[in-house]
Amino acid sequence: MQRWVGRYLIAVGLLHTAAGIVLYRQPLAAIIRAGGWNSVDPHFDRNTAFWFLVAGILFMLVGGLVDWLESQHLRPPGFLGYGLAALAAVAVFLMPLSGFWLFFPAAAALSRRAPAGGLDSAA
Q1: Which of 1, 8, 73, 79 is paired with 28 by a 20 to 30 Å CA distance?
Q2: DSSP structure string for the chain
Q3: pTM
């Protein structure tokens, strides 16, 4: 089993986070100017920036977990690949001009690597 899916997801997360820092630099600067504490709500632009960055970090965390599984020669649970595919499909349907397309290769690889025995098989 070639070790690439976790690293790929980490790269997607890094790209997402870097894009968020560039695209949302003004709302992020406003959060910093406000001192951070309780500075996101009720500002829509700050909320968008915050959740954009949180999503990137979550992508990196999932990628780190998948990379660790790959390094231990463990198969990921089936629900991970199928769930990622479902998330990407819904997101691409709602936002076709987005980076959600980047999840399909990882979802396909994770789904193929899942152990036999159903969506919830672990290893």
Answers
A1: 8
A2: --S-HHHHHHHHHHHHHHHHHHHTHHHHHHHHHTTSTT-STT-HHHHHHHHHHHHHHHHHHHHHHHHHHHHTTPPPPHHHHHHHHHHHHHHHHH-SSSGGGGHHHHHHHHHHHSPSS-TT---
A3: 0.86
